[in-house]
Design a protein that fits this description.
The chain is mainly beta and 282 residues long. It has a single domain (4-25, 49-281), classed as Lipocalin (Beta Barrel), CATH 2.40.128. The chain has 2 helices and 15 strands. The protein has a 10-stranded antiparallel barrel with strand order 1-4-5-6-8-11-12-13-14-15. The protein is elongated and about 70 Å long.
């Protein structure tokens, strides 16, 4: 369904807005009380005050499902590949994330650089990769606040943070699409650059254990990409060492890279699978 990503976004947003409304009347921790979000390495649930702070993370995403779909007026085909196929065609990847924050405001840049060598036929489309590309998410965020999820000296806390930015995909691969006997074949480039909006939710369960969920939605027809979305859910353990904070997280990530409509063809690409992340915070 073409609106599936939007429905997911609205569903999650409604849940979080409901939680926000329910907790908005909850009292903040008393002045001078050490908040779970202020422990060393607490960037993943950042505080509302403080100096400039930085987080740099390396991640390992292992998509166990890679789905390609191509649709024309004459033909429609969807194929599913797995992690073994991806490892065969992937020469390398460099996944790095960076965020900086001052008070409630933050800036982020999440980069996945890659090189792919291989080919794939998807119905009317022939894809041949031998290129270097990158997927870059950039933008700004604003922390609405933190709310205690219970009573006691150190209750779990919820942080909600909307963000907005852009998803930039550079992939010079050309897709040759057979549009049928009535039309000439067409060559499609996968590169596209689109706006995105999203929402993050953090839960600090204890001083060390934490949860994080991100969801974004974008495309909106800009640069021929009508829909892209991404969500990930992570559980992590935070600790201090060597003068900085660390957060080791693991979970799951699912992404619709594009729904590209041009040259009388509709190209869709999905990835999903487990993800691990190691972040250093200072």
């Amino acid at each position: 369904m073409k609106c599936r990503g939007l429905i997911k976004f609205l569903f999650i947003a409604l849940i979080l807005v409901g939680v926000f409304a329910t907790l908005s009347a909850a009292a903040e921790p008393a002045a001078g009380t050490k908040h779970p979000g202020t422990v060393p390495g607490g960037f993943m649930a950042p505080t509302l005050e403080g100096p400039w702070r930085t987080m740099i993370a390396l991640s390992l995403w292992a998509p166990t499902t890679v789905k390609f779909g191509v649709e024309t007026e004459e033909e429609s085909e969807t194929i599913h590949e797995d992690l073994d196929w991806l490892l065969d065609v992937l020469d390398y990847e460099i996944p790095i994330e960076a965020e900086v924050r001052k008070g409630s405001f933050g800036l982020y840049a999440h980069l996945l650089a890659f090189k792919i060598s291989g080919d794939l036929d998807v119905g009317p489309a022939k894809m041949e990769w031998d290129d270097q590309g990158w997927l870059l998410d950039i933008g700004a965020s604003y922390q609405l606040g933190q709310w205690a999820l219970g009573a006691g000296a150190r209750p779990p806390t919820l942080t909600i943070e909307p963000f907005a930015g852009a998803r930039l995909l550079y992939d010079p691969v050309d897709i040759e699409v057979d549009l049928g006997p009535e039309k000439d074949s067409s060559s499609i480039k996968l590169s596209n650059y689109v706006p995105s909006i999203g929402l993050r939710a953090f839960v600090d369960l204890t001083e060390h254990w934490n949860l994080r969920m991100d969801f974004d939605y974008g495309g909106f027809g800009v640069d021929d990409n009508h829909e892209t979305w991404n969500w990930r859910a992570l559980a992590g353990y935070r600790f201090s060492g060597w003068g900085v904070g660390w957060n080791i997280q693991g979970g799951y990530r699912s992404m619709k890279v594009m729904e590209l409509r041009k040259s009388d063809a509709d190209v869709k690409i999905y990835l999903d699978g487990p993800i691990a992340l190691v972040a250093v915070e200072f």
